[in-house]
């Protein structure tokens, strides 16, 4: 089966999901879409450019709170901009935050860069808890509902298709799928083009890359800014899904989760980010949905192993196994499996119908 047929079939399946899935499943899928966008951005930075970052949660927070502050009309600081404009400007704010950090990120690498980005998370947490007039402090801020081209992303949208009313999460589902697909498409273009080859050269060695004519600092800055914009988009989508942003969501745990997504899917493999996001983000939600039917699991707070902790044990063990046996992640495992499958038979043309290079018979 050709790749185009598979993509078309996947598009059809994704298009009909809101007509059959309930709200919790749609929320689960939306969280995976948001995580996929953020994981692709981190993979471009860490997997393609080779720059370790532990501060991805900071840029998601900039995107989420940027949207809330730009579109907010509550008693906190807010500009009251149209929500569609705020959704465009918030990722730009995250990109500007990445650009502001680039003088540091372009001069550091490896563990030193990881520690520097880790400081962003602690600084961001302090600001989110302290700047109560802007962030709402511990209680957070409500997320204004998105309105795009007159279409309100809420239960009062007034849209009905095949006698199925499309509410907030149904409309957000289509938005999240489109954004994740665009993020994947753009990242693949970056990796396959000249910028991607430059970033890979920086990853393999900064001195050889400079000798080959790559502007190392500019390439590292570009990777950091692009990764920050991706995180900002993921932050905006996350804020729209949860309906209220709180500082606890954007801690070190979120940064570690995104790094685990990139590692599980395969560092430097754009499509692998979606697989890693599905495992790290979707697995705890899926286990929580069916906690009553699964043995060894208990409701949160009941004293047993809750679904979230159990999921962390599972994908933590998976990370260890992959690092030992297949450091390139699940993408490399998929390539190995495809290599074991028999190749499709070649279509051979009858000799009498094969044109001769000089126009005569063979």
From TrEMBL:
- Asked if the Swiss-Prot or TrEMBL record annotates the protein with the keyword Chaperone, the reply is no
UniProt entry keywords in alphabetical sequence: Cell membrane, Membrane, Transmembrane, Transmembrane helix
Pfam families per record: BPD_transp_2 (PF02653)
Q: Name one GO molecular function term.
A: branched-chain amino acid transmembrane transporter activity
* Localisation: Cell membrane
Keyword Transmembrane, does the record have it?
yes
In what way does this protein cross or attach to the membrane?
Multi-pass membrane protein
Q: Which InterPro entries does the UniProt record give? A: ABC_transp_permease, LivM-like
Membrane-traversing stretches:
25-45, 52-72, 84-104, 111-129, 171-187, 223-246, 258-287
The Gene Ontology CC terms held by the record are: plasma membrane
Principal place of residence: membrane
Q: Please state what the protein is called.
A: Branched-chain amino acid ABC transport permease
